Amino acid sequence: MSRILTALQPSGILHIGNYFGAIEPMVSLQSAGNQNLLFMVDYHAITVEQDPHTLRQNILFAAATYLASGIDPEKTILFQQSRVSEHTELAWILNCLVRMGELERMTQYKDKALGKGQSVSVGLFDYPVLMAADILLYDTNIVPVGEDQKQHVELARDLAERFNKKFGETFVVPKPQIRKEGARLMALDDPHKKMSKSATSEKNYLSLMDDEKTVLKKIKAAVTDSEGTIRLSPSRPGIGNLITILSLITKKTPKEIENAYEGKGYGDFKTDLARELTAFLTPLQSKINALLKDPSGLLKILDNGASRAKAMAEKKMIDVRQKIGVTLSS
Ligand code: ATP
Ligand code: LTN
Fold this sequence. Notes:
Blueprint: E1 3-8, H1 16-28, E2 35-40, H2 42-45, H3 52-68, E3 76-80, H4 86-95, H5 100-104, H6 107-113, H7 122-136, E4 142-144, H8 150-167, E5 175-177, H9 212-221, H10 237-250, H11 254-260, H12 266-292, H13 295-324
Parallel strand pairs: 1-2, 2-3, 4-5
The structure holds adenosine-5'-triphosphate (ATP) and L-tryptophanamide.
């Protein structure tokens, strides 16, 4: 039996990169026998400014999205990070093992801090340590994430090994699991950058809540090149990204898509892609909206998830406190 864990920031819209990079893999790993945890990392979200009212709504929206995507709360412990205070407690202990240089090397930090100078929050710098605590607290074996989080999971591995060496075998050393296709969907308006919900332009991403008109507009405007053929090539990231999206949605291989569009141009391809996207998003949106109409139902699921997670985390922390020498009774 493997323990599988992932988390997403409840920081606003979710896009199809989040869906295919993290949510769908988690749904497919829900098979019997695995023990799964999925949570909204609200304490990660506040590393950048959040409006409290919006944050509250985003947490519920994220929970509704996971459930609508097929997360079964019987099979997956679904909860909110801040409800299990052991996450921040373990992060503090790991803070005392991590080195400044290790955090300074993190590319997500470098990207997000760029241009912000000294005004960037200490929380943003420390973000990967809280993430390591999230993972190590539950003896996680596998962490399904998009490509951009690989470096953070590697830090969690290093910290697990460092702790185990210093204090004795305590933590499972986790492995990232990154899918082959779709681990890094690119921005529609710039295929050299990753699709990102914190992008300044809405043309960057396809939101899970975009309606038919918006999807068509964004796909028609998606950056390609002047070659005009539907073919994968490393030198053509724009069309490659769109082929990947169609392949993820239709479950056809990129090769099958190339063959189907032999002799056709961007116009036909983009119209079909927009139609397939809408057919995929519409039922998902109805399910999300139905779940959001019953906030007390959502809260019940999250309460239940939090108490199951808390029980596991409390047990782990008894061992951790003992190992580092702060527990006085034997
Ligand atoms: P932000 O832009 O605020 O950093 P994000 O869009 O990167 O947000 P996160 O909440 O950081 O989203 O990521 C949630 C999950 O989605 C992670 O597992 C991450 O690896 C995955 N993910 C994010 N962007 C993409 C993408 N473009 N392609 C595939 N997976 C992605
Ligand atoms: N940093 C991740 C979110 C995250 C996470 C985690 C992912 C926080 N804790 C634990 C996997 C496991 C992100 O931005 N996507």
